[in-house]
């Protein structure tokens, strides 16, 4: 007779919550703070953190616990298996017009985009993208490109929590402004982050759709505002749009 309920290990779920929290924190957190944020008993958090520290996944110091380089093994294993990442890494060789620019590949994770791969160019942008970095989808070019592939009600639900604090004076401030921008993205075929993440930086992003037109990931090209003259912006935006469609899953 089969068990009608799947067997689960609550401690494993809590361990994942702790790892996600530390990844988002970007630094060490103490047991009390983690327990408060996750609504878990301090004894449980301490026990899990100690176990992960013994396994080399976390590092403990006077500030609390933080992630170690051990986590990169999992990231590396995932990236090797991802055909999207492999295809993304081939793009500069396929299209020489991409060579001077920073390129990123990301996917939606709740209200944020998480970066799966990056190729930072030598030209100074004042901002460096990193694998695993998360940014608000409503401010990033790939985030807006992917949200534009969804019905507005679904996109709005994804970002309906606390609106992110503006990064710059040009950051979107409310859902109404987002809805207007998403309509422009749908008409144009690519999204624009014009100084919303970093003043002086322009990003052009397009969604990589699946067979049903839903976003799997997004690719973006970043350049300085001085480089982003209207004709160049339009030409590169169309290029990113065409490359994203060519990577359709």
Automatic annotation (TrEMBL):
MF terms in GO: DNA binding; DNA-binding transcription factor activity
- Per UniProt, residues of the IclR-ED domain are 70-249
Domain HTH iclR-type: residue ranges: 9-69
Q: Name one Pfam family in it.
A: HTH_IclR
Name the source's superkingdom.
Bacteria
Would the keyword Kinase turn up in this protein's UniProt record? no
Q: Which SUPFAM superfamilies match?
A: GAF domain-like, Winged helix' DNA-binding domain
Q: Where is the signal peptide?
A: none
What is this protein called in UniProt? IclR family transcriptional regulator
């Amino acid at each position: 007779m089969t068990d009608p309920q799947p067997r689960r290990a609550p401690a494993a779920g809590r361990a994942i919550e702790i790892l996600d929290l530390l990844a988002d924190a970007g630094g060490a957190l103490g047991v009390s703070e983690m327990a408060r944020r996750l609504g878990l008993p301090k004894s449980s958090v301490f026990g899990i953190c100690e176990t992960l520290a013994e396994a080399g996944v976390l590092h403990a110091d006077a500030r609390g616990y933080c992630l170690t380089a051990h986590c990169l093994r999992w990231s590396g294993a995932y990236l090797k298996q991802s055909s999207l990442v492999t295809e993304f890494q081939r793009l500069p060789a396929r299209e020489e017009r991409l060579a001077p620019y920073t390129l990123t590949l990301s996917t939606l994770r709740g209200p944020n985009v998480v970066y799966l791969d990056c190729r930072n160019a030598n030209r100074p942008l004042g901002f460096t993208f990193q694998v695993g970095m998360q940014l608000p989808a409503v401010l990033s070019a790939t985030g807006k490109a992917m949200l534009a592939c969804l019905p507005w009600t679904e996109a709005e639900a994804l970002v309906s929590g606390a609106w992110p604090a503006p990064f710059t004076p040009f950051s979107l401030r409310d859902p109404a402004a987002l809805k207007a921008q998403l309509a422009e993205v749908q008409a144009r075929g690519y999204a624009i982050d014009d100084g919303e993440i970093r003043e002086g930086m322009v990003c052009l992003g397009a969604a990589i759709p699946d067979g049903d037109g839903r976003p799997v990931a997004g690719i973006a090209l970043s350049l300085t505002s001085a480089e982003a003259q209207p004709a160049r912006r339009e030409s590169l935006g169309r290029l990113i749009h065409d490359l994203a469609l060519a990577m359709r899953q």
